[in-house]
UniProtKB/TrEMBL annotation, chains A, B:
Residues in PurM-like N-terminal domain copies: 35-145
HAMAP family attached to this UniProt entry: TMP_kinase
Keywords of this entry: ATP-binding, Kinase, Magnesium, Metal-binding, Nucleotide-binding, Thiamine biosynthesis, Transferase
Residues that, per the record, bind Mg(2+) 2: D53, D82
PANTHER family, alphabetized: THIAMINE-MONOPHOSPHATE KINASE
Annotated protein name in UniProt: Thiamine-monophosphate kinase
Keyword Nucleotide-binding: yes
Keyword Magnesium: yes
Catalysed reaction, written as an equation: thiamine phosphate + ATP = thiamine diphosphate + ADP
Binding sites annotated in the UniProt record for Mg(2+) 5: D221
Organism encoding this protein: Oerskovia merdavium
Binding site for ATP: G129, D130, R155, S220
Record lineage: Bacteria, Bacillati, Actinomycetota, Actinomycetes, Micrococcales
Domain of life, per lineage: Bacteria
Enzyme Commission identifier(s): 2.7.4.16
Gene name tied to this protein: thiL
Length: 358, 358
């Protein structure tokens, strides 16, 4: 099949599967691979870790920006990050794929190549899947992992006085998306690539578990929102040190400036102090609320030698009691924040992503 | 939340999850349930079985016919059947759900109830999921199972002289769909229900494995097509005995007659011999090519006492060599059929479902 020109609707399901199968990654944990009613996967310690995540065209990616390869890469990585966040190593994936008939077959084989490239470093295999037609592309991936005999690292184990540590990039994906959205992609291809093909620090998850992490999660919806989830699950609060993200803030400064200029208007004589403040605020927003970098946030007992590439970014503090309202029972107290930045309630413009309220 | 009136777009993702979570089935194999980055599931014999299947609105179900409950039930059952077809018992499911904002919240909670009802008899739990907005409903389920220390029953193990046996209904789902399609649903609600909420013989899978089944698969795309898959995977041929399906053929006769009449025209004096022949042919087509009953087709060594509810429906024969073409190399031989019915190549009107060629 000359897949460069053929559309999905011009092929049969069996021909399409025959084109995809040889591209899928294989792995050592696969006991029975694709082609039967089910696959069989090894679970050496008598347990397996499982998570599922879905990507939907025009909700999670725009076809004019993301190739099939990019979508396959991202679908795999956002799932693999959920396994790493438990302290586990990925073993296997299954993929349900909904595709419209007007899609080129090359887009679909590109997706298979992107899945394979994302899985290659960890040795995870695609062991099964399902294919359907539909108006929009939907990629639903389920991923499985092996804890290697260790206990899973949950969100709920953080203890007061623990160090909060982060591994991975912060805000790069959000900055890359903003550049694309402002037609400024060529200005910083590295940030655009961070959005299109995120690179979560997958090996850091098992390393954190091995170093005694008390809690961990994957940052998919933004630092403030996900840190709040960890804090609430653990019954504690988290105070973040914005200065710990200086490297990311500096890295994003030029992109923030360009996006700010594109949003206009500036003073006629060039950017003034107000504009510079707005640029810094934008970079700060990307770092605090940008999603989809899929870095890992973990807590460790104070004094732990942090495994690479974790860096201390804050500390676990006691959950403050609610501030008493001035007007008695009829005037309920505002909830105390589960996350503070440099000791204060954060004033970011967004607090992460909600699918239904946007 | 008064879910009867609220639409998905009027709620937040967290509120929606809070409405769904209490409805999901729980199970004994769940070590860490929903709410963390991943779930953790027990795999007592050091392996797990996994399969995934997707349902897409207007491709696999029509919202005017299927309730949320029906879709949840069907999404679970078609996946559970893939686990049974390996000879395994289901332990856990994860569900990726894409829903449009105009859907009532009650539809979504109905789907959760349908999942739970379908999982109840086998004790399988929903241990995780993902939720996204999208224009069409998409339900992607991944299911896991436990082999209980036995080897998986593959499609490829059938041996010449084995008995071919079937468990479950044949053609009921196709007949129910045809009734709905002809606005004849009230004529036979049991057949309509068989389409809307299939009842695969899940316990028959492990029973077949325990009785020494040499090969097995789930009949999701029709008897002829799926029997052909088993035959090709095993390097054999299958001869089916249509008379073994007499019970199903009789059960479908009235529905076939009604659909045939609705398709008209009939002779002015009522159905004549040609019409009766057409009705019988339609029932035969439903039995041979109708999909989605999710019965199990298995092969057993001759003389095996078949476990309930399996019935012998044919036998495994040697794959015939291709019929030599009359014209030499330029006139390739037609492929010998992998499946025959009463010793002859089947002449059904359809041979099962292809998503992209319809």
């Amino acid at each position: 099949m000359n897949e460069g020109r053929v559309l999905v609707r011009e092929t049969s399901e069996e021909e399409l599967l025959a084109a995809i199968f040889p591209l899928l990654p294989t792995g050592a944990a696969t006991l029975v691979g694709p082609g039967d009613d089910s696959a069989v996967v090894s679970a050496p310690d008598g347990r397996f870790v499982v998570s599922t995540d879905v990507l939907v065209e025009r909700r999670h990616f725009r076809p004019e920006w993301s190739t099939g390869y990019d979508v396959g890469w991202r679908a795999a990585m956002q799932n693999l990050a959920d396994i790493a966040a438990m302290g586990a190593r990925p073993t296997s994936l299954v993929v349900s794929l909904v595709i419209p008939g007007h899609l080129p077959v090359a887009w679909v084989t590109g997706l298979a190549r992107g899945l394979a490239a994302a899985c290659a470093p960890s040795g995870a295999a695609v062991v099964g899947g399902d294919l359907s037609s539909g108006d929009d592309v939907v990629v639903a991936v389920t991923v499985h992992g092996d804890l290697g005999g260790r206990e899973p690292v949950l969100r709920s184990g953080a203890q007061v006085s623990d160090v909060v540590a982060h591994a991975g990039r912060r805000g790069w994906s959000a900055a890359g998306l903003a550049l694309l959205d402002h037609d400024l992609g060529p200005l910083d291809q590295e940030l655009v690539d961070a959005y299109l093909r995120p690179e979560p620090p997958l090996a850091a998850g098992p390393a954190a578990a091995g170093s005694g992490a008390t809690a961990m999660l994957d940052l998919s919806d933004g630092l403030l929102r996900d840190a709040g989830r960890l804090a609430r699950a653990s019954g504690v609060a988290v105070d973040l040190d914005l200065g710990a993200f200086r490297g990311d803030l500096d890295r994003l400064a030029v992109a923030a400036s360009a996006v700010r200029v594109a949003d206009g208007p500036l003073s006629a004589t060039g950017p003034g102090p107000a504009d510079l403040g707005a640029q810094a605020a934008l970079a700060r927003d990307w770092v605090l609320t940008g999603g989809e970098d899929h870095g890992l946030l973990a807590t460790f007992p104070a004094g732990t030698s942090l495994p690479e590439p974790f860096r201390a970014v804050g500390r676990v503090v006691a959950r403050p009691t609610s501030v008493p309202g001035a007007g008695g029972a009829a005037d309920p107290a505002p909830a105390a924040p589960a996350v503070t930045v440099d000791g204060e309630a954060p004033r970011a413009h967004g607090v992460g992503w909600d699918h239904f309220r946007g």
